[in-house]
Amino acid sequence: MVEETKDTKVLNMEEKMADKVEKMQQFLADNKIECFDVQKLEDERHTTIFRSRMEVKGQLLPMAVLMDDSVYVILQVQIAPQVVDEAKLAELAGAINNMNNNVRPFKFTVSDRGDFMLNACITAENNSFNPVLLNAIMGEALKFLEAQYANIMEVIWKK
């Protein structure tokens, strides 16, 4: 337990989390962005998920922005659902590592269900969370996927 002194202040994590979510909701309202569904989870991290989609090369890719009471916000884009099983993961490991080493702003992962994902982790404490920056990173993800989607899918579908 942290003891509160005149030099320290213990933060209420729920209040801390609410600030990020409120800033994001205000940004969406101010900019008339209405394509997000919001889901609040009843978990120990007080997670809120903003769900939407990105249209890339005619495909609608599920996208989520995950906020919790940590100092991070995660952007996830599902590039391809349930396409990577254990055998395929072994084949793709080198290509995934290569992408992760050469594409600095984004990291590529495979979920437990076999979904191939693009992720971006953004440092976002409440006092420094900037929805404009998050929006810019979403734009960069879209540009990247528009340019690289065919190449990524070629690697995924390669026999």
Give the N-to-C terminal Cα separation: 54 Å
Total of domains: 1
| Strand order across the largest sheet | 1-2-3-4-6-5
Overall CATH class: Alpha Beta
Strand coverage percent: 25-35%
Instruction: Give the % helix.
Output: 25-40%
What can you tell me about this protein's structure?
This protein is an alpha+beta fold. The protein contains 3 helices and 6 strands; from the N terminus they run αββββαββα. The chain has helices at 13-30, 86-102, 131-157, and strands spanning 37-40, 48-56, 59-67, 72-80, 107-110, 116-123. A hairpin with a 4-residue loop joins strand 3 (59-67) and strand 4.
Question: What does the secondary structure layout of this molecule look like, with pairings?
Answer:
Layout: H1 13-30, E1 37-40, E2 48-56, E3 59-67, E4 72-80, H2 86-102, E5 107-110, E6 116-123, H3 131-157
